[in-house]
Amino acid sequence: MTLLSGLWDTTRMRLLVEIERRGSLSAAAQAVGIGQPSASQHLRTLETAAGQRLVERNGRGSRLTEAGRVLATHAAQALATLAAGEQELGALAGLQTGTIRLGASTAPGSYLLPDTLGCFRRDYPGVDVDIEIAASGEILRRLLAGRIELAIVGVDKADERIALEPFLADEIVGVAKAGFVDTPDGTLEPQALAEMTLLCREADSSSRAYVERELLEIGVEPARVWELGGTEAVKRAVREGLGVGFLSRYAVAEETERGELEVFRLRGRPPLTRDFQIARLASRPLSPAESAFVATLTRCCAKQSAYAEACVARSAAR
Description:
Number of helices: 11
CATH topology of the largest domain: D-Maltodextrin-Binding Protein, domain 2
CATH class of the largest domain: Alpha Beta
Order of helices and strands: HHHEEHEHHEHEEEEHEHEHEEH
CATH superfamily of the largest domain: Periplasmic binding protein-like II
Largest sheet: 10 strands, mixed
């Protein structure tokens, strides 16, 4: 009997990973650089060794079975380890090359990464960065699946297979249209939320999870909750006076600076703070390129942190 370990090569590993990403055997074969007949033969070989189906085909494409997803996850991790080894060899030779497959949740991805990427590109022009942005929960699932290799998220805990390292403090602040709520000292009475519409992010959002835990702890239930699915949608609805929201201070810094939005904290409660975290698989160390990116991220975000904190402070003092 042929064992799977004897059949693993990078082509078969990449094929499973690409089927998971693209949902199509033909698209996966094209991404790997082989023909579809060859891809089908590779799958048959793997399925024979595994003793079960790895891929289900339907009229809309192909998807991995549960067994296929298990193998694809390990394949992605193995490929990531090989890539890290190549980068370390490059570092020993004095090269600054490689590709960083990065995922980020909405707040850091939209409001911190652009400036950081500019700094990083100037310092390391030979390193490519592939970026995916989604809610924190989805980003962590992609990390476990091997779709990305490094992540920036706002969670305080994760699957035991994921290592978290804090790099930047954040505060989730209440936001409202100027003059919409009575916040003479920059705070709002928590019970006032019981008469308001809460405009919130999607369920996988870490900022939403923090807010829901806070409201549960103080025993306040908003009159209505509207799930709008994204930070920009929440800000637009807040500007229209449709309700109040709670967002990262980095997401609302510019609007508060222009006076379009006012921020508030809940009266009698400590600030709703969290850390943005660098996330990676615990079994995989950072590659040299990733280590350089994390160092750049930490350095560049210091200025953005000071700006966002100042904007929130000025808005609360108005």
